[in-house]
Amino acid sequence: MKLSAETTLKSIATALGAIAALTAAMELQRALEEERAADPAAVVSEDPLRATLQRCRALSPEALETYTTCQAAWEENRRRFFGTSINNSDTE
Fold it and tell me: How many CA atoms within 13 Å lie on the side-chain side of 52?
C-alpha cells in the first residue's frame, strides 16, 4: 500500500491538531488546579457562616441533631439561598 502525498499531509495535520487539543486541555487543567489551590482558606474566612457549615459537615448525623449551632447555620443558609425573610421561615 502506497501513501500519497495528500494522505500523508492529512495525517500530519490531524496529528498536529490532536497534539494542539491535548496541549490546550492540559493547560486548562493546570490553570483550574492552580485556581482551586489559590488559598481556599481565604474564601472560608470571608464568610463565617460558610466556615461554620464546613465544620458541621464533619459531624455525624446523630451529633447534628443535638448541635444547635449547626441547625441554626443550616437554617440561615437555607434562608439566604431561597431569599426568604426570617418572619416567613416559620410559615410551613
Answer: 15
Predicted TM-score (pTM) above 0.90:
no
Cα 54 to Cα 48: distance, rounded to the nearest angstrom: 10
Hey, what's the cell of 79?
A: 434562608
46 and 72 housed in the same domain: yes
**Structure confidence by residue, pLDDT tens digits, 8-24:** 999 999 999 999 999 99
Based on the fold, state whether residues 60 and 17 are members of the same structural domain: no
CA pair distance 29, 23, nearest whole angstrom:
10
